[in-house]
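Limitations

Structures in this collection are predictions, not experimental determinations, and the ligand pose is part of the prediction. Treat each record accordingly. The example that follows, with lanosterol as the small molecule, is included so readers can see exactly what is and is not provided: the inputs are given verbatim, and the output is the predicted complex.
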Amino acid sequence: MDDELREQVQAAILDGAGILAKCQEDDGSWHFAYGGATFLLPMYVALRHVSGQPAPAVRAARMRDHLISVIGDDGSIGMYAGGPGTVFTSTLGYVALRLLGEDPAAGHMTRLRAWIHEHGTPLRSASWGKIVLCAVGLYEYRGLHPLTPESWLLPRWAPLHPRRLWCHARQVYLPMAWLYGRRAAAAGDDGLVRALRAELYTEPYERIGWAAHRSAVAPCDNYRPLTVVFRTLSAVLRVWERLVPRRVRGRALARLERHIDYEDEVTGGLRIGPVNAVLNTLVHHFREPGGDRFRTGLERLDAYLWDRETTIDMQCYNSSQLWDTAFAVQALAAAGRAVDTGAGNDAVRAALRFIDCQQIREELPERERFHRDPSRGGWPFSTRAHGWPISDCTAEALTAVFHGRNPGPGSTPHPGRLEEAVRLLLAWQNPDGGWPTYERVRGGRWLERLNPSQVFGDIMVDYSHVECTASCLQALSAASSRLPAFSGSGPGSGDIDRAVRAGLAFLRRSQREDGGFEGNWGVCFTYGTWFAVRGLLAAGVPPTDPGVERACAFLLSLQHTDGSWGESPLSCTLRRPVPSPEGKAVMTAWAVLTLASAGRAHHPACVRGVEFLLSRRTADGGYGREGFAGVFNRTSMINYDGYRHYFPLWALAAWHNALSAA
Ligand code: LAN
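Predicted complex:
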């Protein structure tokens, strides 16, 4: 191979490792922006308004600037900046802008309003928008499908018990059901709310026939149409709404409150995600305005606000610190094998200490009563305080611990704790051989027919995912050669073998006709294929395996003419590869990582990918922001800002190391 290219790559690795080391936090982690979903900030603004706690003027202005920045060319707001408009996000964005003091006569406001009117007003918003509007006093609960609180009183074995839902759906349904059960809404005598009622609708608010609009939805908001099963259940539940004895409703609401308070307590007030963080706080407000729970809930929401840039946005999680740090370690470790990175080694040492501190040490109190699975030994996506362990975060943390170079004394968790992590990984595996996100699956796929959200796909149960499975296979294989309890004749070695075999079968079944793998949490086929190939190889499949061959051929078919890879967010929504207009360094890095690890570092396509990565560097040797690489539930995009800092670096190092090994 061309020596000149190799030298350039070595220089780039040195630069990249230096930049990464420089942006490390004092605690050894990396903390990057994690925004993207446009409905989050408006929900937060709505909460502050309803509870009479508007954000201070300077901060409000910065939030306003953020919301204005996500308005698209046609005047609408999509689920993510640049995405096709939805009534849901356009309406919430409009309301938030007004609550933050924006003038309704401003050009962008008139255009946004016109777009909302043209697409049917909030009466045709996806259900998620309607619920938030109800709390503000801009929609009426009669116009919603029931969010029946009594489902939480069902016996545990009931097929419709909410404990069976994916934890995010479950934890969001909790406060939503409480708000619905109480018909909780801000007092309607607010001048701004009165003005908004007139601005949003094209007929007088008082004359709207709410019940008739329960299922009304604009085509742009109807990604997952309500099913016949859902409508039938809704009809039954509407009868229940008329009959439910007050005493029973009271009991149900009290139970919801216990679950809401528990979630607040065991997550150090962070809650599992931004949506239940806002909605739980809203519930606290309606229970006891200005009370302790409300005040703490509101304060802790600051963790979700990204305040390090000119505008303020709400993040999709309290942070992605553990996830970013685990990958940064793997990238730096690969870089350290390629060149002497100096500062990189110190960074790895500090990062491993951070990772060590984030491992969950205790089980939760009364966890079964609150439908929580074991947590001890696991790692969360952000920090230990958050406390919800995740399969692939646990796996990537383990892999980082195993691969971190020269970790030094005291920086690696005690082997006993690593074994706990492995046991947790083993217990997480789904019956289909794949790994879910947070919890072993508890409900049938048929529950998806009851998905009430309209705008999100595949949210009802904790499915097995290609990425989670691949991460777990990687960690388990590494554990089997490093932890005595699980290696060779160790008592647990059979457990890992069995789990890896079933996981491998799951990955094989997930391969598409075209050879690619669809990712669920990154955009999308490049992401899924990188994870899958990494998992296949970790499970002992050789690079010459037909499955790996087909996956590589698939990636080659996606390469752009300039040597890059790049997919549009639409890949996720439409579920077929859609190229982005410009190549992206992060996606090119995933493709190069795949090809290099699968014995194709010499392949001209891989070399051109490397050249593209070199050409994309900014003057300081880093990479600029380049659009969305992360996704959830098919329609919402996330900016994983850390990705540009470590994936290109990792890819260059992996390519270099593969050539050196050859
Ligand atoms: C995340 C963030 C991390 C992500 C990975 C670990 C990267 C992934 O491999 C597994 C799934 C997981 C944990 C994940 C699931 C869905 C989340 C929590 C998010 C994408 C961040 C935000 C999203 C959450 C559902 C947003 C809240 C919105 C609702 C519709 C409830």
